[in-house]
């Protein structure tokens, strides 16, 4: 039996992108994926973006997907979490660097880093990445200054100038080519969420939670409700479902977390409120599927949020582990495998081969989310592909 109506609360990861860019990517990648899963798509309601006051921008759009003997309409509510991340990106680069260093130090001093090691050692390597990068930059700059001292004229002025210029140039290279400042913003945001500081950021998150919970509460009873989150979007997802459950705990909800960074914040000892919300969701009748990938260093591979947070009497999410190599042709996989940010984004990108996981096939396809959870993923069998038909959005 297929789903006729579905509401998806869509929560992106930590990316400096507006709602419109997320929508364009979703549509482009959905178009790529649709024929792989024998789906025909039509955008029946184009993107409508709204923003009130200091709230994040919110985009609404609808897709109708169809196949042999089924039709599903999915209404999407896409929250512009990029409006929150841009708060961090708009700061002075030196402030971004220093706030990231403060955050990293806090995660070490509080023992959170060692919890990362115990939970998923690969994620601990990701934590160390910016620290190692800073150490390399400082060591190279010091070496350049020392070399200038050895071969240049007497006096410290020229070596100091060369060392300073080297630091600036190397940090610029790391920021432009190695995602360095984005990573520092990411850790600063996680630090703020754990310690519940920066009222302006918390206020925006709380408005997202309140708005999404209200929309969920107004959804007709026969509509499937699914909260879908990538990366740090999972932090908002758990808070939204906690709020929805406080309104109506009898209804069935679905939670899809992919490449989740929930534990990045929840393992911090100061994040007690977030852990309580995870416990509320885990003890409810919410169906939770958590998708992980070995090749992504930015997710907690083989983790179990309920177990790892020590939540008693909670139901663990259904783990779905995906191999991106199996979803893409060899050429496409080779093009992304050395860019760990692009690999992390593959969770929400289109696929070229059918496997038991696809972001777009789950959100737009006919299968009930409860069936997907029960089977541990999407069915991999397929019939002959149907031609793709994706209508153009209506002119605004």
UniProtKB/TrEMBL annotation:
Q: Which organism is it from?
A: Phyllobacterium sophorae
Name of the protein described by the UniProt record? Alpha/beta hydrolase
* Keywords noted in UniProt: Membrane, Transmembrane, Transmembrane helix
Q: What residue intervals traverse the membrane?
A: 94-114, 126-151, 157-175
């Amino acid at each position: 039996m297929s789903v006729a109506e579905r509401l998806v609360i869509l929560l992106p990861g930590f990316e400096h992108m507006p709602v419109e860019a997320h929508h364009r990517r979703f549509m482009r990648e959905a178009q790529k994926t649709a024929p792989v899963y024998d789906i025909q798509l039509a955008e029946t309601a184009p993107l409508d973006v709204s923003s009130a006051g200091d709230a994040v921008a919110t985009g609404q759009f609808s897709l109708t997907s169809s196949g042999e003997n089924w039709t599903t309409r999915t209404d999407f509510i896409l929250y512009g979490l990029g409006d929150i991340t841009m708060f961090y990106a708009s700061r002075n680069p030196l402030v971004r660097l220093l706030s990231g260093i403060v955050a990293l130090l806090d995660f070490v001093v509080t023992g959170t880093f060692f919890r990362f090691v115990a939970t998923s050692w690969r994620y601990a390597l990701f934590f160390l990445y910016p620290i190692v990068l800073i150490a390399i930059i400082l060591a190279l700059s010091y070496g350049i200054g020392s070399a200038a001292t050895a071969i240049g004229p007497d006096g410290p002025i020229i070596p100091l100038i060369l060392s300073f210029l080297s630091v600036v140039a190397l940090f610029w290279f790391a920021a432009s080519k190695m995602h360095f400042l984005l990573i520092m913003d990411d850790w600063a945001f996680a630090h703020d969420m754990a310690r519940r500081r920066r009222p302006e950021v918390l206020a925006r998150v709380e408005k997202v939670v309140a708005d999404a919970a209200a929309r969920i509460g107004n959804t007709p009873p026969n509509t499937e409700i699914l909260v879908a989150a990538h990366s740090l979007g999972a932090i908002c997802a758990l808070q939204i479902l906690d709020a929805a459950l406080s309104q109506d705990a009898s209804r069935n909800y679905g939670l899809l977390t992919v490449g989740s960074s929930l534990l990045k914040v929840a393992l911090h000892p100061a994040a007690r409120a977030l852990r309580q919300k995870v416990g509320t969701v885990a003890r409810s009748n919410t169906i939770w599927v958590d998708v992980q990938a070995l090749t992504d260093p930015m997710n907690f591979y083989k983790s179990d949020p309920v177990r790892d947070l020590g939540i008693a009497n909670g139901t663990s999410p259904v783990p779905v582990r995906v191999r991106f190599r199996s979803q893409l042709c060899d050429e496409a996989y080779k093009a992304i495998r050395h860019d760990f940010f692009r690999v992390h984004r593959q969770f929400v990108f289109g696929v070229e081969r059918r496997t038991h996981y696809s972001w777009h096939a789950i959100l737009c396809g006919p299968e009930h989310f409860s069936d997907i959870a029960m089977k541990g993923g999407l069915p991999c069998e397929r019939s002959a592909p149907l031609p793709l038909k994706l209508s153009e959005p209506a002119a605004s």
